[in-house]
Amino acid sequence: LPPSVNWWLYQAGIPRQRIKDAAAAAPLRERRRCLKGFYADGETLPPFPVEALLPDWSQGEIACPRPLTELIEWLQKRPPVWLRAQTRDVDRLCGELTKADIKVERHARMNNALSISFSGLNLRTLPAFAEGRFEIQDLASQTVAQLCSPQPGEQWWDACAGGGGKTLHLAWLMGGKGSVMATDIRLHKLQELKLRARRAQFPNIRCKEWQGVPVPRYHKLFHGVLVDTACSCSGTWRRNPDGRWTSTTAELDEFNALQTKLLTNAADAVMSGGTLVYATCSMFKRENQDVVGQFLEQHPDFALAPYNCPLTGIDCDGMQQLWPWDGDCDAMFMAKMRRK
Fold it and tell me: How would you write the pLDDT of the chain (340 residues) with one tens digit per residue?
């Protein structure tokens, strides 16, 4: 058991020997049996189905290609920490991490994606981090910028940049050439991005506030626009399990309206023949396929652009939902469109 659990047991007055250990990959039912020691002698855990680990309303929102119980099993596992190497010499970075007693594994397809085992070390204290040679970024999130595939010399707009993980990735893929404009309604997030861009020495990133409204001067200005919108964040429930019980179905309608608005207003900035990418860290159709479907119905000058997924290698018709089993990562939705 983790040290924190031993502390809880001590505070609760429960003898440690009453709690059995479960293997890290143990099925949910086995882990549930291990909790019996928390109950008084003779009592048992109240029966409940595995599906009860997800709120009832959410299950109808998820178009899962595998049994729902398998998805729940994945949501019960701690995800690994993923790094994105921001250097050409990835071997050197891996060597430095190994010397710091961090076990590193490179992804088979995305060579700059590194999975590390938890060591308790503060990664931000490492010289490689201070020098901007890696960023902490989930594998699914790394896939989005790869899908955008920006080219050196192009102009890109990251419309809902937040802290700027994907902005930095776009700038990296462009080799520091061209420009990436990062916008958000939250100015404190843009300040964070400025610090990260300075650390990584990217001169081609500009930060501006955007309130989500149409900007006429941006009309057909950019080679590509990324709209990674606010959402329910259900795709990150592995990392934030409390989100299952703090989210509500009523919020999905609000998110759908906001996402449609942001996608519509940002899409006007895509030049003819340019790329529009819509992404969320959600598993819900109402925030993903429904939003893209509504947008395409109202904007016939855009069409889905088929692609080969950088993470899985699977050919897609233009929309794809990534699942935790696709790379031991968060769930992420991506849609790639082209302006005619």
Answer: 555 566 666 666 666 666 666 566 667 666 666 666 565 554 554 556 788 889 999 999 999 999 999 999 999 888 899 999 999 999 999 999 999 999 999 999 999 999 998 777 899 999 999 999 999 999 999 999 999 999 999 999 999 999 999 999 999 999 989 999 999 999 999 999 999 999 999 999 999 999 999 999 999 999 999 999 999 999 999 999 889 989 999 999 999 999 999 999 999 999 999 999 999 999 999 999 999 999 999 999 999 999 999 999 999 999 999 999 999 999 999 999 999 9
Q: Does residue 12 lie in a domain region?
A: yes
Instruction: State the Cα–Cα distance between residues 59 and 55, nearest whole angstrom.
Output: 7
DSSP reduced 3-state for 121: coil
Asked if residue 72 belongs to a domain, the reply is no
Statement to judge: residues 43 and 104 lie in one domain: no
Inter-CA distances, 110 with 31, 144, 295, 299, Å: 34, 12, 30, 33
Structural domain of 6 = 1-47
Q: How many domains in the chain?
A: 3
Q: 329 catalytic, yes or no?
A: no
- For the question of whether the overall pTM of this predicted structure is more than 0.85, the answer is yes
- Catalytic residue, candidates 281, 309, 316, 329: 281
